[in-house]
């Protein structure tokens, strides 16, 4: 389908109705393509191989030994950030002395310096003794209930579609589990989801099991017994969200006392996974289908509930907000992810076209048909295509950066073939209306820096009178490891709380299945308006694997 046909399919009425109450502001230049983006502290984000300073909107270099391009990672239980995997050096010019990163393990932090200098604010690597068991490009890493990383899949080499001869259809842990040193766990599920199983979408469920989505299939996996417990119904209507079809998936907020998990999986493509690169086009229209499923026995029996985005999306990503809503941004209306490889990519030098420049809000608690809107969502002048990224910040806004769908750097001054979507270094912040208009917000003036599971803590807060009559929420968040439109480990747990005067008493999650032990952020939300965030360590802060902490709870999660 070509661009003229696409225009007739997009319901642009949503654009005309939009009230621009959110806003984009351009601030700063990243200096690199930060396809990996992790909020580290109120003042810092990790971009590999740079530190971004939120206060000055500038970047400073970090020294690394192995090529971190297309890696994954996450925080572990002691607050250290771990990046795993990457790619060979010779595929990206200009990496200097960096070595093959596919087995790389890079440790950063905890970095407690506001300026990003001092102990913990450099990357530690020892490739000879500290490395993965196998080579991994495009893997996924998740922090699990013992505070370690569960590492899923990947490939030996750079590829658009994964293949049986190059795929890493297996799992491993960092640090390695006792008795599993030097070994991996084979995965029948990853075998069955070839060739579209790169960057598998994974979420830790309140049962401690892991949901993995790849291609158009999903499985609930029991880490403790190395068992596939249940294959879910296929994503309806032939829609696929795995690379290179590249839809998005997100675990919705978990609420006490039942912590029932619901997952959305949206966008992507309904093209078959047997399609050849020659048959694929940058103008193939992406899917607008958006489905959700609740991972209880009753929810799985009911199957996927189908909704639709106001426009098709590929390579979009989700930012979970403290209110529990999901902001969807970046990507394109047509095409596929990856460097130029599809049949007609030569003319544009990209695999996708028709950038999606307006966000979508997903209201997670509203009924079917009322959840998805573009009203109030602004349009950015900057296309954010392949290799773009966005992360939530301590200030309560969204940092948006990068885009580079080419295997080299293109700038306005260095684009001899006039290819589409040159390399993008401009950084934007997407501000909610109350930041844009400097409206009153809740304020956290004192809070604990660490809280054991199921323990109570007190926070000193100020709730503006104009917001006091609305609902009060306390949000515990992990912003995730952001790369290639996938926010691995992104999570929000609403905390039980009571407010008396300016003293807010909160109760930590009951155990590490609900929130895996490690660093988190707390935001106070009053009548839909959130505070700035404060950091907190959940659990005992020790190195993984941690013993079971907290108390068991009665849940219905599979």
Automatic annotation (TrEMBL):
SUPFAM superfamilies in the cross-refs: E set domains (SSF81296), Galactose oxidase, central domain (SSF50965)
Glyoxal oxidase N-terminal domain: residues covered: 52-433
Xref: Pfam families: Glyoxal_oxid_N, GO-like_E_set
Keywords (A to Z) from UniProt: Signal
Domain called Galactose oxidase-like Early set: residue spans: 441-538
Signal peptide, first to last residue: 1-18
CDD domains: E_set_GO_C
Classification via InterPro entries: Gal_Oxase/kelch_b-propeller (IPR011043), Gal_Oxidase_central_sf (IPR037293), Glyoxal_oxidase_N (IPR009880), GO-like_E_set (IPR015202), Ig-like_fold (IPR013783), Ig_E-set (IPR014756)
Tagged with keyword Signal: yes
Name of the protein this chain belongs to: Glyoxal oxidase
